[in-house]
Amino acid sequence: MAQYVFYNEEIKKDYIRQKKATTIYAPNYMENIFSKATTYEEMLGKDICNWTVAEGIDYFKYLNVVADSTLIGINKIFRSYTQYCIERGMSVDNQNHFLEITRETIVNECVNRTMLDGMIITREDIEQGITIFTEPSDKFLILCIFEGIAGKDYQEILNLRYSDFEKISENEYVVHTCSGRTFPVSPLLVFYAEQSSRQTTYTMDSGRYWEVYGEHLDTVIKFKDTGRDVQKKYIGRRIYQRLFKLIKKMDLTKNLTAKYLANSGQIDMFQREAAKKKITPIEAVFDNEIYDRVSYIYTRVNSRKAFVNKFRDYLEPSAK
């Protein structure tokens, strides 16, 4: 802990030691949270445990983050720490004001929604954006995240074969993933999957190229060294790094990430399903059948209320 400086250092070190022994919180995670709050504590002239509700909200705004989960996690630590201080007589009013800061407060008042505007894009944006890539595997990677293919450590992508796509009818396809999931995908994704599975070389922007290999002849995403015994978890990390570079190269919005690429796909699906039922996208989120379908395809969807609170601007009838 030597590299961290805390306000009321000893009590925070004692708290971290206790939590290290009794909870799953990583010490570095707690140390980082307290260290970042030090400047604000010094400015207010009081410990976190004595902050008011307004001061807590102001601090969360000051952090300038877009992920409500980040602030919710910090608030949980502050709640726990304040209770720890109350039990030791360190709180001025013996009130844990972080209990009054709810998930809804964080989503509605503390999240930087301006930055969020740079994180959500439409299907049209993506289909146009990927045209800058010459390699079909690059086009496929971006679109497959948008449509819900991923899996833990990107295993669904790494194990995907062109033969895993099934044509149901004209312009109607489904994918069968290695995790046992089957769901609809677009004809464009299938088109890029076929082209990608036929690749034998990958060409860089510099003009350099190398041969690529897959576990099977029709493996969709191949690498120059997957012909050897390379751990797929390691290659999954390379998928993440490649996605990061591709998203940056598309330059559609300044804050887009792989996570928000999937969120964009979720919003797109709620909008399309709403149109079919002639309801609003927000009503679609609260429609059990639609919500369950979206949750199945994307595996991770925020709770309905949290999803609507975070992405309301994109779910309203006048959405961007």
Give a quick precis of the structure.
This protein has helices at about 10-20, 25-45, 55-65, 70-85, 105-110, 115, 125-130, 135-145, 155-160, 185-195, 230-250, 260-275, 280-285, 290-300, 305-315, and strands spanning about 165-170, 170-175, 180-185, 200-205, 210. The chain has about 325 residues and is mainly alpha-helical.
List its salient traits.
320 residues, 3 domains, two-stranded antiparallel sheet, 15 helices, 5 strands, 6% strand
Terminal CA distance: 46 Å
**Given the C-alpha coordinates, what overall shape results?**
elongated
Order of helices and strands: HHHHHHHHHEEEHEEHHHHH
Q: What does the average pLDDT come to?
A: 88
Quaternary state of this entry equals single chain
**Secondary-structure content class:** mainly alpha
The share of residues in extended strands comes to 5-15%
- Main beta-sheet annotation: 3 strands, antiparallel
The number of distinct β-strands equals 5
Count of structural domains: 3
* Strands side by side in the biggest sheet: 1-2-3
Number of helices: 15
Q: What's the alpha carbon Rg, rounded to whole Å?
A: 23 Å
Can you tell me the residue ranges where pLDDT is under 50 for at least 5 consecutive residues?
A: none
Helix content: 40-55%
Describe this structure in words.
- With about 325 residues, the chain is mainly alpha-helical.
- The chain folds into 3 domains: about 10-110; about 135-250, no CATH class; about 260-315.
- Helices cover about 55% and strands about 5% of the residues.
- The protein has helices spanning about 10-20, 25-45, 55-65, 70-85, 105-110, 115, 125-130, 135-145, 155-160, 185-195, 230-250, 260-275, 280-285, 290-300, 305-315, and strands at about 165-170, 170-175, 180-185, 200-205, 210.
- A 3-stranded antiparallel sheet has the order 1-2-3.
- β1 (about 165-170) and β2 form a beta hairpin.
- α1 (about 10-20) packs antiparallel against α2 (about 25-45), α8 (about 135-145) runs antiparallel to α10 and α12 (about 260-275) runs antiparallel to α14.
- The longest helix is centred in the C-terminal third of the chain and has 20 residues, at about 260-275.
- The chain is elongated, with a radius of gyration of 23 Å.
- The two termini are about 45 Å apart.
